[in-house]
Amino acid sequence: MLEKIREKEMEFVLPTYARVDLAFESGSGAKLLSVDGEEFIDFSSGIGVASLGHGSSIIKDTICLQASKLLHTSNLYHIPPQSECAKKIVELSGYSMKCFFANSGAEANEGAIKIARKYGEVEGRAKRYKVITLENSFHGRTISTLKATAQSSMHNYFGPFPDGFVYAKDIDEIEELLDDHTVAVMIELVQGEGGVQPLDRAQVKALELLLKSKDILLIIDEVQTGVYRTGEFLASQLYDITPDIVTLAKGLGGGVPIGVVMTSKSSVLGHGDHGSTFGGNYLSSSVAIAVLDELERYKQSGLLDEISIYFEQKVHNMYQKHSDLFVEHLGFGLMRGVRVRDAKTLSDIIANAIKYRVLVLKAGRNTLRFLPPLTITKEEIDEGFKRLESALSAL
Ligand SMILES: Cc1ncc(COP(=O)(O)O)c(C=O)c1O
Fold first, then answer.
1. What is the DSSP secondary structure assignment for residue 220, as one 8-state letter?
2. pTM (2 decimals)?
3. 27 and 144 co-located in one domain
4. 4 Cα–ligand 1 center, Å
5. Distance 105 CA to ligand 1 centre (A)
6. What is the pLDDT of residues 328-339, one digit of tens each?
């Protein structure tokens, strides 16, 4: 079975992914069934996307009902679930903002950069266009979000890139880099792809105040941290800040592609300044409403916090037991990372985990990353860590 899938892929799909030699055909909760009939525990949720787990009946019923009525009309017409979804997102954030709907994290960040650039053009005397980002950030794969991603290894080809992206070594260095042309600072509060690296709360708060005093926009990329991944609806709430622009994607659609950029600078973009054929259509926005309703209930019931603490404890036990392999344990909520002593050991751990049928992720050079479904059960957690323990012991 896998052989045929591999052959077809080699013949017809561009080889941009170094894929694990596995394919799945169904899933339920945090369990995935491979095409070869093996059951896996999923501690990755498709890189933080399947927030309600696999095979969610809430998502299935929403899709079926919406598909039987209407999937898409384009943004030429009003889309009732789109504005309902925007209302829900804004209410959950607690910010006074408005939303634009896109289809992915990169696209949401493109929107954020466009809002900032236009703000820099029309507000103030000199044209301001520079966006400062942090080393080891990840903001997407389009030409400008790739350039915003401060990882030089990703800039080897594809140039010339758009001008105006400046990289800070760390949050401390941002102040030195500000000049008359700076319009925004874009950061992840917990760098995801960069290695599950949380920023320091006091430093972020000080940055927020500094930027406000200079009318420089604070863009928080919550593509990975958002939608309850770090315990609150937004990591920005955890950090007690009020950004000017926030982006979301991944867990918002529970597997249906959707991205959002929301901003308090709601009069910057006008008719014709931005658009998307698919963005916020009936399918994606109705599913996002269902996902948000369910996650809001789940958070309010106390279950999300309970399961997050349970998961964290398990990661911590593993980390302590294998202190020869691990050097640090980081993250919030259900976004967890364990720094492995070196990159080779990490790839051995991930390969062994697959042998023992548990899916985990790599982040940065040497971080073992966990992004389980937010609705994972204690039984699934126990089983996953049992398998991981076998994988570690067999190293
Ligand atoms: C923080 C962050 N921003 C942006 C992106 C890009 O999102 P997408 O792959 O949906 O374009 C990612 C994806 O991993 C991400 O983690």
1. E
2. 0.98
3. no
4. 30
5. 5
6. 999 999 999 999
